[in-house]
Amino acid sequence: MYEPKLTVGFKTTPRDDSSRNAGLQDQMNRLSKRDPAIRVTTTLEGETVLLTGEVASEEQRELIEQMMLFEPGVSAVQ
Nearest to residue 77, comparing CAs of 54, 45, 53, 55? Predict the structure, then answer.
């Protein structure tokens, strides 16, 4: 998303794709509680998040895409 890509100065334990996707889906579930028009499902494939579902506006879609790009280990959104 931004160049240069930032790295942390300490070691981290990588999470498996299943737990990473659960965290992403949890974010979408919290958003849909705040705004029922947001009904989005996440699928993580490597470093790419696939978003499916519905939002109320193009602006919401763009904001959700940008939000996903801030997640560690995510480099693309489709």
Answer: 45
